[in-house]
Amino acid sequence: MRVEIITTGTELLLGEIINTNFTWLAQELNQRGFDVLYQTTVGDNPARMKEVLDIAVKRADIVITSGGLGPTRGDITKEIIAEYCNVDLYMNLEVWNHIHEMLSRRNICIATNNEKQALVPSGAIVLHNEAGTAPGLVLEHDKTIFVMLPGPPFELKTVCEKELFPYFEQRFPHLGIIKSHTLKLRGIGESNLAEMLDDIIVNQSNPTIALYARHGDILIRLTAKASSAEEADVLIAGMQEKVEKTVGTYVYGYNHDTLPEVVGKELLCRQKTIAFAESCTGGLATSMMTDVPGSSAYVKGSVVSYTDEVKNLVIHVSKTTLTKKGAVSEEVALEMAEGIREAIGSDIAVSITGLAGPGGGTRKKPVGLVYIAVADKNGSLCRKFVFNGTRTQIKQRAAMAALGLALDRLKESPQNNSEETIHDHDAER
Amino acid sequence: MRVEIITTGTELLLGEIINTNFTWLAQELNQRGFDVLYQTTVGDNPARMKEVLDIAVKRADIVITSGGLGPTRGDITKEIIAEYCNVDLYMNLEVWNHIHEMLSRRNICIATNNEKQALVPSGAIVLHNEAGTAPGLVLEHDKTIFVMLPGPPFELKTVCEKELFPYFEQRFPHLGIIKSHTLKLRGIGESNLAEMLDDIIVNQSNPTIALYARHGDILIRLTAKASSAEEADVLIAGMQEKVEKTVGTYVYGYNHDTLPEVVGKELLCRQKTIAFAESCTGGLATSMMTDVPGSSAYVKGSVVSYTDEVKNLVIHVSKTTLTKKGAVSEEVALEMAEGIREAIGSDIAVSITGLAGPGGGTRKKPVGLVYIAVADKNGSLCRKFVFNGTRTQIKQRAAMAALGLALDRLKESPQNNSEETIHDHDAER
Fold first, then answer.
1. Are B382 and B424 members of one domain?
2. Which of the four pLDDT bands, split at 50, 70 and 90, describes residue B77?
3. What is the C-alpha separation between A62 and A144, in angstroms, rounded?
4. Would you state the pLDDT for residue B41?
5. Mean pLDDT, rounded, of chain A
6. Distances from the Cα of A347 to the Cα of A301, A352, B391, angstroms
7. How near does any CA of chain B get to the CA of A90, in Å?
8. Which residues form the MoaB/Mog domain (chains A, B) (predicted)?
9. Structure ipTM
10. For residue B228, what is the domain's CATH number?
11. Residue A235: band (very low, low, confident or very high) from pLDDT cuts 50, 70, 90
12. How many folded domains does chain A comprise?
């Protein structure tokens, strides 16, 4: 089934609101096996909306609109589609009673223009809207199914989940579905990953495999087409096994897992505490860790040592090391990690020192150079990274890498080698 | 000038990414007097893209595409438009050199498919892309102006601001314009602000006035319609004067100013340094301050004291105060500010202690309760806030309030009263 989604509203064309309705609908419909081929935005203008409908009917089987079902004169979607299908509008008593009830519950007097919201095109199916006054509507005309949805995102979602999707399941029982599953990785760049998975990527068919880098995360998304959710799950599980045989050591979580959450869980179940000494990340790593509810159980505290003086005074990095090696060096990173661990008394400690830029880079120490060290009772190790990106991107990537290193140490990965150096040139994508 | 924006990419139709490019473009183009009448999304499919172009050419004077200028086979926008306009592609040396330079700067070997990005349609104007490898392109054909923009949002914005908009200004000098000017405020809630400006809001016409709360900032946006930028500026200046007569003391900056930048500038010009002791914000305030390039000149460092132990050990909050008053209290906030100032040796110090939730709230100390204290050589003061929102929103609002308080102290505002209490119940919007 070919779908076109028409989002209406002058506020969209003025750029006043972001079209999240379309993104959500597209996700949900694709997962249910519909082909969303086009999306059009048009203002609250009768002539232009008719013209857009005319085009949509020619290239789609299902035309879904969002918005324009409200009580004002500017709300014209239902009227235009009824006119287009050459059917009358009638006052639907059930809808009218619902509107009445909703408004009186909010202590709002019913106005004449609310009657407009109770008008339903003849022959349309009413999709009850428990979250608002405007119902959704389904109207079949010739070979096209028109679906009209309310514009407010919460109402649109409610009507879809409670009414439209169940209707679609009955109406199109044999549609295949698309299901996705995301693996989240740390400690590897996108291009190295692509190389390691080259065989699988070249020979992919169903499920497909795609690599992404987003906010310092590396993602592998597996997408399966199948006739049922169960079949899709089996296809995905098979592919996941193949992928993890090759790069499983880099996988830290799935789908909505975040690295701070996963590190937090590891700390919790091992009853360990963590502390950070942050230089170029300026507190970001700790802030990310403390975004997780309940993190006070394992985050003891941190020091942002933005100057050499604070590195020396508060976390006891030796003045000699600072002078001889410079603040951005493996030696300082190691002393920072050991120093913060001692100062705060945490089980594990992570330090980050580097150049976030845009100024301050040299040939030997370019912007993006970051040393990250981790220390616990077994000793300490340091890794070197070179990140690309803007100042805030470098901060983000360095903070994510620091959490990744903490996770490695927590899981006692075999890479406990203080000499190890990784050049992460891919980090900019 | 009627504009249609065509956003391309299967990832949009799958609902994988939100179409922020369109929203941004729509805002910018409307402000410049263009009529954005249609927006269409289509996948990376030659037949469908041609069909969409065909429709767009009939109903718009300017057709702007975003996406599909990359090096892969799936990137087809330039090729389809060139074919549509019946012009050849040629290898543009200037673009090629730029690509070469960008890739070698990132230590990436140039691949054969990068050549594709240097191909330019004959007769097209190249819009230099300093943020990426794919340039923007302008191609006039018959009565249509085709504008091709790269898909990554940062690249699209850069190409528009540095190249496309200046080109439009020269090409369409007589368009009416809409101009906006934003005032940024701290230390006042949205509903109090609305009350104070009630007269102005009720009687608005041109410029219009709108209030927003976003990411802990309170914004007033003035929007003028005029035939020239100068005329718009005069209208806006008049309205701004009226607004600032009433609420000027709360205004900290304009348009793209951020509170961390403004605080940074105040510190720089007074040659003062700052330090933070953060509890519930977990490092966020310091991270925000250090997002600003050059902030190492005035941020000395911070301590995230997420446990009582660290509050006592590192920044010397007395155990008695912690036990008697609890970590979330005015007394602890004051000792934290004084303690961090001493420990790090900064001119000014700010402390934040509170409950970010979602757990841990009590009747007396609810989630959202935050004490923020500021200390300098003249003494210290503390303010009490109650923020609404999720854990991360409360962190954000508390961090912004802390920077606001630092700014007040730096500007030696008259509100240096350690008893003062603000209930910021509006903060959730």
1. yes
2. very high
3. 6
4. 97
5. 90
6. 12, 17, 26
7. 31
8. 4-171
9. 0.74
10. 3.30.70.2860
11. very high
12. 3
